[in-house]
Amino acid sequence: MYSLQDFGFMIGPQNEARVAAYYEAMKRVITPESVVLEIGTGVGLFAMLACQLGARHVYAIESNKMIDLAAELAEANGFGSRITFIKDLSTNVTLPEKADVMISDIRGTLPWFSNHIACIVDARKRLLRPGGVQIPGKDMVYLAAVHQPKIYDKYCAPWVDNRYGLDFSGARRRVVNQISRKRFTADDLLTSPQAVATLDYYLMTEDGMVTTITMPVTEAGVGHGFAFWFDSELAAGVSLLNAPGQRYNAMYGHPFFPWENRVSLEKGDQIVVALRAHRRPNNLYGWRWSTTVTGAEGQIKASFKQGTYFSRVEPHPAVLRDSPN
Ligand SMILES: C[S@@+](CC[C@H](N)C(=O)[O-])C[C@H]1O[C@@H](n2cnc3c(N)ncnc32)[C@H](O)[C@@H]1O
Predict the structure, then answer these.
(1) What is the DSSP letter of 287?
(2) pLDDT tens digits, residue range 89-130?
(3) 325: confidence class by pLDDT, cuts 50, 70, 90
(4) How far is the CA of 232 from the centre of ligand 1 (A)?
(5) Domains observed in the chain
(6) Which of 21, 24, 39, 243 could form a disulfide with 104 if both were Cys (CB 3.0 to 4.6 A apart)?
């Protein structure tokens, strides 16, 4: 559940490029006749901007209790009568009219996040008029192998060469199967960006992903894992770019998928990664990434089978679940 400070972070300086791109996209598509739907309005910024841009009416849906603040802010800005705020999940909502424009940013660091895709598909079918406009229209997801010893050491260093002679390998094994949001620069990339998937929100129905990607190493160096990111086509001609080296949006960052071990990579090596993202019933995504690195002579230099499943810690029988007395 996001806090007010979280919502401030999302629309603050660290995510300014995101907000500016959304505003530009809204400017291109909202007209005085537009009925606008926003899914996940937070504190109502995009709903109010839609009013400023002349929308006839806005339906702003949000399951978080901060929707009451959004309504207060809308009233303070003179938009109280033009925005209908609805506190619920969009999948439970019906509207008195269909929207011409649907706006959302309910992804996480990647589009495969919680029930994001299922909610967009549902709203597209039920709440948007046929031919209506969606912001975003498409997300394009990329990855590249990266060299980033600082990030990798932060993951692993606490669990290796313990100064008191303790074995923490069970912790290291878990941590290298965890994904986390980091920030990379263009200099960290050891391969060119590889396209993972394009999510076309006008058409898509699937909320999982399975693919295999082959990439040649373009820079020699020690590889530590993969950086992911997505670019977005918010509206025709309006892009939001998140690649390392572009203006950074801290809200998305660059999710890091570490490798089990460091790999010394040479130009001409080939990396093959089999990827799978699967939404579980609790709406958390399970990820798998199996990586094989082959040298120029065809020798296997590394082979890792990883996944968020392997980061799980099972209940241990030695742990008392109740107080002993
Ligand atoms: C990342 S925040 C974005 C807030 C704001 N629109 C912005 O872009 O700054 C996503 C918000 O969407 C809400 N949300 C996600 N899915 C939703 C759904 N299906 N129906 C209603 N609210 C939803 C969450 O509670 C969260 O407050």
Answers:
(1) E
(2) 999 999 999 999 999 999 999 999 999 999 999 999 999 999
(3) confident
(4) 17
(5) 4-135 (3.40.50.150), 139-311 (2.70.160.11)
(6) 39
Rg of the chain over all Cα atoms, to the nearest angstrom = 22
41 within ligand 1 shell (Cβ under 6 A): yes
To the nearest 10°, the Cα dihedral for 9, 12, 14, 19? 110
Q: Is 10 in the pocket of ligand 1 (CB under 6 A)?
A: yes
Which two structure tokens, joined as six digits, stand for 184? Answer: 């990379």
Query: Alpha-carbon distance 28 to 167, whole Å?
Result: 58
Residue 74: phi and psi, rounded to 5, are -65, -40
Q: How far apart are CA 101 and CA 133, in angstroms?
A: 5
Verify whether ligand 1 is closer than 6 Å to residue 63 (CB atom): yes
Q: By the 8 A CB rule, do 170 and 137 touch?
A: no
Determine the pLDDT at residue 258: 98
**How many C-beta neighbours within 10 Å does residue 277 have?**
22
310 alpha carbon to ligand 1 midpoint, in Å? 30
**Which residue in the block uniquely carries the two structure tokens 């603040």?**
69
Written as six digits, the tokens of 270 are: 């080939």
Residue type, 92: N
Nearest to 146 by CA among 273, 290, 265, 270: 265
